[in-house]
Amino acid sequence: MFYNITNHGMKRKNIYISLIFITSHMLGLLAGLKSLTVPVTGAPEGVAQDPISGVYLLLMIGVATGLMLLLLKFKKNFLISAWFYSAIFLTMLVFFSVFVSAPLAIAITLTLFLTRYFTDELGLRNIIDMFSFAGAGALFGTMIGFVPALIFLFVLAIYDIISVFVTGHMIDLAKGGLSTDTFMGIVFADEEIPDETEAKDMEVPESSESEGEVKEAGISIVGGGDVIAPMILSVSLLKNFPLYSSVMTSLGSVVGLLVLMNYKSEKQFLPAIPTVAGFAVLGFLLSLPLVIFI
């Protein structure tokens, strides 16, 4: 999800968010490459390439979204925080476990986790969260093949559009995450992040719903799912295509993000996955001539 409510520093904001985005992808690709040197799942290759495996991911997202909305509705902030921080810890642990021994991975993860928990510095949080994004992207990307990943992105893009423009529940999740300090994604702020009351009272007029950008309170956000979803495709390609296909796919997704961030719209919340996923697929397609002729 992309939400932007800052009117100035557009160039600096775009560069900053794009750097966090693409660095997360490169870390995810490194973890994916390392993971694929040893068996990463107990499932045979045929299961990983089965299109239904992409549907499993979608079901997981749907269930997780429903549970989070219920927790927000009943104001179970402790459970929301427990869920949020557990996800951060586990995905970071996945990332570091690929490169170092289990005890060292736990030590590094715990250090970064506690640093993130006790700091209010958004820049530091964004840097630490890159390892979480990379861990999640590498984990799911190595579990499924590129065909299920393509199906996953296509259906997720449709879901993203519906959840922003029709049901609006993705907007509720973003506001709830900001109000409870459990938003998972990239955050760029020119001003102090609104507190719980202000976040809930954010006016989102019918003509200004953007799943990533708003122009009133000095904050721009990109949802963690918008970072991870195209990364899953990039990592999944490592099994069947050269590394440069994965890199071009990730570069395509960041181009899509830049297009979205520079898109002039009255809408405040815009679904990001259709754009970043579409450009990711374009990046992959552009790599195919190289695959054929090199």
Please give a structural write-up.
- The protein is 69% helix and 5% strand.
- With 294 residues, the chain is mainly α.
- It has one domain (2-293).
- α5 (102-118) crosses α6 (122-143).
- The protein is globular and about 55 Å long.
- The relative contact order is 0.19.
Brief digest:
This protein has one domain. 69% of the residues lie in helices and 5% in strands.
Which key terms come to mind for this protein?
294 residues; mainly alpha; two-stranded antiparallel sheet; 12 helices; 5% strand
Set out the fold topology.
Blueprint: E1 2-4, H1 10-35, H2 45-49, H3 52-73, H4 77-97, H5 102-118, H6 122-143, H7 146-165, H8 169-179, E2 185-189, H9 196-200, E3 219-223, H10 224-236, H11 243-261, E4 269-270, H12 273-293
Antiparallel strand pairs: 1-4, 2-3
